[in-house]
Design brief:
The protein is built from one helix and twelve strands. With 251 residues, it is mostly beta strands.
Length: 251
């Protein structure tokens, strides 16, 4: 999914909607790439001390046992001026997109919307490492949940992508474009609970104009985003020229 570039602190993901050479038999495909981030030039604030600092007037060491004349009082020697204790090491890890931790806990396992316009199972997927595109299932009637983004109900946009058609067979999102604002969407989670959502917007967006920051946002109010291919079909490139993007809010 990533192109071998590592950021130490922040990952900026650029996601561009693209068709595939089999988009007549594919669905919404998003290409994910990472670019080099700005180099850190200023160290962050020093971490807090590992030992609590005693308030003024508090004892910082146990009192000596004065009942024993030979008792040695505890040392109160302080480090010489100008010396400091090095801060503890700060853990770091690779920030390539395909190495981001996947969501844990409850995950979506099924979705339905409208009057049976959409109904089928959901599986977690990431990005195809050989193509850099969202790795959709090789089955027409299965939805992909982008597992490196939010899970449905968590802050940000949980993305479900599905085929519009696949090898001449209508895909699970073939009728996604028929949804309207106010339609109900149900997402079944792995514990059997069912989340209720309401469609707020249905858009046909030219692929170069897909609002990737919005669609794949990891912050903000919980949003459910359903995506597939749509619009006119380019028979020369075998690509759909647009994406159908449906957004929903918790009911």
């Amino acid at each position: 999914m990533a192109r071998g570039v590592t950021w130490r602190a922040v990952v900026l993901v650029a996601i561009v909607a693209a068709g595939t050479t089999a988009c007549s038999a594919a669905a919404s495909v998003v290409t994910v790439a990472t670019g080099p981030g700005p180099a850190a030039t200023t160290p962050g604030p020093a971490p807090p001390p590992t030992t609590p600092v005693a308030p003024v007037g508090a004892e910082t060491a146990p009192l000596a046992d004065t009942s024993d004349p030979g008792a040695t009082p505890p040392s109160t020697t302080t480090p010489p001026p100008g010396t400091t204790t090095p801060p503890p090491a700060i853990a770091s890890h690779a920030a390539q997109l395909d190495q981001l931790p996947a969501a844990v806990g409850l995950v979506p396992v099924a979705v339905s919307a409208g009057d049976d316009a959409v109904s089928g199972p959901v599986v977690p997927t990431g990005v195809n490492p050989s193509t850099g595109e969202l790795d959709l299932p090789t089955e027409a009637k299965v939805v992909a949940w982008y597992r490196y983004g939010p899970t449905p109900g968590a802050p940000g946009s949980a993305v479900l992508a599905g085929h519009v058609d696949w090898h001449g067979v209508p895909g699970i999102f073939f009728r996604l474009r028929e949804l309207h604002a106010g339609d109900a969407v149900a997402v079944t989670m792995s514990d059997g609970s069912v989340q209720s959502w309401t469609v707020t917007d249905v858009r046909l967006v030219a692929k170069p104009e897909l609002p990737v920051a919005e669609v794949f946002s990891r912050i903000g109010p919980p949003t459910l985003t359903l995506v597939t291919c749509g619009g006119s079909f380019d028979s020369k490139t075998h690509h759909y020229r647009s994406n159908v993007v449906v957004t929903a809010a918790p009911a």
